[in-house]
Amino acid sequence: MENRYNLIDEKWIPVFGRENAKSPAESSFMASLSDIFADSSGILSLRGNAVEKIAVFKLLLAIVQSACPLKKEQDWQALGLDGMRKKTTEYLHTWHDSFRLYGEKPFLQFPWLKPMIKSMLKAKDKKKKEKKINQCCDLKIGIASGNNTVVTHFQTDTAMSDADKALVSVILMNFALGRKGIMSDLYKNEKKLLIAKPGHSIGSGLLHSFVLMPSLAESIYINMLSEESIREIHGVGNKYDSIGKAPWESMPQSVDDNMAKELQKSYMGRLVGLGRFIFLENDKIYITEGIRHYGLNELTTDPSTTFMQTEKNNSKEMQALKADTNKRPWRNLPALLSFTGNATNEGFVCCQLWKTLTKTRLDILGHDYFYVWSGGLSIKKNTSGTQTVNDFIESKIKISKDVFNNSFYENMTKAFEYMDSIAKKCENAIIHYFKQLHKQLQKEEDKLKYLSDYWQMCEKDFPDVIDACEDSTGEKINLFKKKFSLHALEVYNERCPKSTPRQLEAWAAGKNMLYIDNKEQQDSKKGAKNGRKTRK
């Protein structure tokens, strides 16, 4: 086999960079692993859909965690950003031969899959054989196949470059969809050709969150975890208790050998889980279900997810936030940042943010702000039990490092309470309007659709809301209550016409439900009179 296409040297990672770029081509380009850790890379962030960003970022974290093992938080401070770059570059040089996409030792692949799968299919007819040996493009999330509708040319099956195949290979390690056509022959005492389980990082559509900084190298550095932090995360119920060993250093040879078991109980398995065993050959991919990692049913999830443990019928359960197309990720910010304020310990927690978003780390990096990025893939199940793509969602919120002041979290939760309460009043007003007309909203989706415009308006205001949260008096946040009410009134006027006498009577009855007190009613009437026209 020819050893070629090394991921350390080849440019396969889509990135944004060069803030002062003169053209879009200069601001978005492809980078290699060595480019990411170069001192003068100028790379600002990853590019692509939400799953591509998470999968590649997890791989980058796995590399630096292997190159720069940390015992305690003090080791992170002693390492420094330059130290991380230097040690990671040296590590990549040492393991250079393990990052080839093709050859005798292909990256995260199992060459023995090809003869094994072919021998299993030898007695079967050609049609079934073609079904079991997949095309690489069939496994790319978002590509339309079969009878699925094609909306844009980006969804069509196209010939994949080596860079595309490298990206798909990384995604399959954690984010493979549960689907038919993936062989499960590596698991004994089970029926063959079962629906392969989804990757542990995707589950039923998990939402992931990370701290991001102005450059990609800084984002990787601040998201590093120490052995001490992993033990603390293990203490909240997760079943991984160490950093572990990167799989490319010693690949497992079965789904239940010692290396596979080590990945199951280590943080490294949450970063590069080998959820599918694969082997690339030209445009084909030989694939079986790989290592099955612990999930929510086993009270275990990735540090980057946001979860809450509850107790029901004398047994513990784990509930995690999901990527929801009806709820943009920024609306989960109080749950994501609960550890920064006076929130109770019984709510949601994101361990990745809890252990890496600290005042000390922000001070060392020397920035007055940071970003909270949240994203994931909203998925749904077919009647057959296989998973299909709904949509990718993500949010990136810029926040001042003053987030650790108690007033910040208090003001933010107050703002969300305003938004939520006004949204509920808007929903009740719309429902009341239709009841007055002897109509009824038949589906829950109808209510969500009517409120989507309201949340879009609030999202435009949200950067200003975050700035106002720094006010220790809390007066600036109170000003947004009136603004949110005006948004609700505009949505109500748009969704509830008053062209006929009956409609006008129903409109007036529903409108009275929007107000909290007389003063707000007067302010809203004045705002509606002087404000912008209702959108078409």
Q: What would you note in describing this structure?
A:
The chain has 536 residues and is α+β, with helices and mostly antiparallel strands. It has helices spanning 24-27, 33-36, 50-67, 73-94, 113-121, 126-132, 162-175, 216-222, 227-234, 258-264, 267-271, 333-336, 351-356, 359-365, 406-436, 444-468, 475-495, 501-511, 518-530, and strands at 4-6, 13-17, 28-31, 43-46, 100-102, 134-135, 207-212, 276-281, 284-289, 306-312, 315-320, 349-350, 369-381, 387-400. The protein folds into two domains: 4-103 and 200-402, no CATH class; 405-530, Topoisomerase I, Chain A, domain 4, CATH 1.10.132. The chain contains 19 helices and 14 strands. The strands form five sheets. A three-stranded antiparallel beta sheet has the order 3-2-4. Strands 6-9-8 form a three-stranded antiparallel beta sheet, with helices on both faces. A three-stranded antiparallel beta sheet has the order 7-13-14. Strand 13 (369-381) and strand 14 form a beta hairpin. Helix 15 packs parallel to helix 17 and helix 16 (444-468) packs antiparallel against helix 17.
